[in-house]
Predict the 3D structure of the following.
Amino acid sequence: MPTPVLPLWIGGREVQSASGRTGDVFDPSTGDVIRRAPFASAAEVGLAVAAARAALPGWRDAPPLRRARVLARFRELLEANRHELARIISQEHGKTIPDAAGSLQRGIEVVEFATGAPHLLKGEQAEDVARGVDSHSVLQPVGVCAGITPFNFPAMVPMWMFPVAIACGNTFVLKPSEKVPSTALRLASLFHEAGLPEGVLNVVPGDAEAVGAILTHPDVAAVSFVGSTPIARHVYETAAKTGKRVQALGGAKNHAVVLPDAELESTADALIGAGYGSAGERCMAISVVVAVGEVAEPLVARLREKAAALKVGPGSQAGVEMGPLVTSVHRDRIRGIIAAGVAQGAKVVLDGRDLAVPGAGKGFFLGPTLLDHVTPGMTVYREEIFGPVLVVVRVRTLDEAIEFVNQNPYGNGTAIFTDSGRAAQRFEHEIQVGMVGVNVAIPVPMAFFSFGGWKQSLFGDLHVHGMEGVKFYTRTKTVTSRWPATEEKSRITLAMPTHG
């Protein structure tokens, strides 16, 4: 039986790609090819943009309350189909069903936030800014928007983008990762079922050709991206050159600082979840533990014990805590980074490279790995590993820990574990990172706050979702009005108008 080829979603319906190019979509737990993703051509991206442009006037002019009602129905359908969606996510990505369901819930929360469009899109008003003159501002959509999303969160990251953009009156073209395309296509069909007009949301799986077409298309007004730092920089520079509004979230090297006064048991539990959850394939995963002073030895011992006890297997299997990596290429790359770390002097506390999962066939598994006495020059520290590898760096003081984190070129997320309010207060004030956790290992903001890093973790001025997402997907128009009385005399003046 031939492997099924997925469609594109353009103009409110499934469309078979005519590009003739496809990519394998794997079940990472078995290594089997389960379907094929179409690689949309530049011409097909153009069709999706044209559909979005045609739908824009009607959706832009729809009252925010009407848009909110469609989003509310979409949210209901997401809730009703959450088990199916979690299964699709797990099947193509490899993460466990509970983990997939949790990431889906975070996406649903953004939809819930976006249903507040009538309130979120209110402008400001001031009466009598000058004699007989009033001013008010309005937030209007920017036009056709596009999103380019990574493999690690097939539902959550797209839903950081398109629900907010659509709530603001824009139309949208989504280019999901070709490794995990099915979730995005299902989300589009559910949104259509909720009453979204044809062409408001379009989905075009693809590769570099599709990305290039989006970045240079003259009718695309804004681009959102999440991925590695080199690609984020390319997306930002390429799209910005054509006058597009851009938010490009890049890579990460997230540090967790552990002070000697931290409660070790709960801290170790949190670090295990943050380091090995989703097999480390999270942009907010903790990949570096900065152990301060005498906490290092007992902390490493606890981390080793807990990591070694994790149950690794197919993500759909009950009781499994960590699934496989997304592809064999990615797994082999991480094996090479671990080998480089060992060769450069890192101490192997736990080695997951040779993990065997019974009955898993050719699944892309890699066990939890823990390396100690890591230094900044080592490959395992410099590279964004994006896998189940936790490294420990030892420093003597909180001062050294803060300086160490701040010297890293990334600034996505960080955390501190301590019982000292003063130390935590100082850390959150001085640390040069966009998202900070205090005794919270994965400080992902709720939907009504905004998500984004600093330094090489973000290219652009605004973060995703929350009010910064609303700002990104809208333009402010300020209106100054005066209604003179009929008997009022007018006169010509060439001087700059003043108020008062």
User: Anything to note?
Assistant: The chain has a mean pLDDT of 96. The radius of gyration is 25 Å. Residues 42-60 form the longest helix (19 residues).
